[in-house]
Write a structure and sequence with these properties.
Blueprint: E1 6-10, H1 14-26, E2 30-34, H2 45-50, E3 58-61, E4 70-73, H3 75-86, H4 94-124, H5 136-156, H6 169-174, H7 180-183, H8 191-201, H9 204-211, H10 225-235
Parallel strand pairs: 1-2
Antiparallel strand pairs: 1-3, 3-4
Helix pairs in contact: 1-3, 1-9, 4-5, 5-8
């Protein structure tokens, strides 16, 4: 039986990479539907029908669990769904699954938001503000919190190869968000995390998933009218 590919509504960012990596690891057929967040495509009615929150990634699975199409937004929910669908990287055993879930939620509720704020204050905000003095507290606050979270992960990885024991969707969720140069960190301080980064990053499917749509990516920290408009759309949003 031929299955239709999963539609991946995507832009090459850490949250997008989580899902492209998972699809590559699980061998699930998919096609990319670019959502250019720098030009406001996330606000289109077509995309918001899939993602009411107006954030990517989202997926549309034409072959849902009951044979009917199923759409999902929120990367953590998508990873759980794909793990269930494929029967891979998401254990059936309740204890083992709880171990994966807690680290998946750690990324979704902690590392992702804190690292995202770090990116904003360290990379994007300087291009948006004339008075740089107002940036100091935000840069320090979020850089320090990401440093703490790196430490949590480093300790976790001291006696195991992957965050939940076996390689899982938790690793796929966390790996794209470890971006030391963008987050003001040095992996020299976190040797277990550094080893894990290399171990996960060496996987062929991770390399393939990380490369999806790389040519689409734009530099929102750059100067010029196009980058300025992209920042306005991303960081000056109002309810629509």
């Amino acid at each position: 039986m031929t299955h239709k590919p999963i539609e991946l509504w995507y832009w090459p960012t850490p949250n997008g990479w989580k899902i492209s990596i998972a699809l590559e690891e699980m061998g699930l057929p998919y096609e990319v539907k670019p959502v250019n967040i720098g030009t406001g495509e996330q606000f289109s009615p077509q995309f918001q029908a899939l993602s009411p929150n107006g954030r990517m990634p989202a997926i549309l699975d034409p072959d849902g669990p009951d044979g009917q199409p199923l759409s999902l937004f929120e990367s953590g929910a998508i990873l759980q769904y794909l793990g269930n669908k494929s029967g891979q990287f998401y254990p059936a055993d309740i204890r083992a699954r709880a171990e994966v879930d807690q680290w998946l939620f750690w990324q979704v509720g902690g590392l992702g938001p804190m690292a995202g704020q770090t990116h904003h204050f360290r990379q994007y905000a300087p291009a948006m503000m004339q008075d740089q003095r107002h940036l100091v507290y935000g840069v320090r606050r979020y850089t320090n919190e990401v440093h703490r979270l790196y430490g949590v992960l480093n300790r976790r990885l001291a006696d195991r190869p992957y965050v939940a024991g076996d390689y899982s969707i938790a690793d796929m969720a966390i790996w794209p968000w470890i971006l030391p140069s963008a987050q003001g960190q040095s992996l020299d301080e976190f040797p277990h995390l550094a080893d894990w980064m290399q171990r996960v990053g060496a996987r062929p499917a991770v390399k393939a998933g990380r490369a999806v749509g790389e040519a689409l990516r734009s530099n929102l920290a750059a100067s010029g009218k196009e980058a300025e408009e992209a920042r306005r759309l991303l960081f000056g949003q109002r309810a629509r």
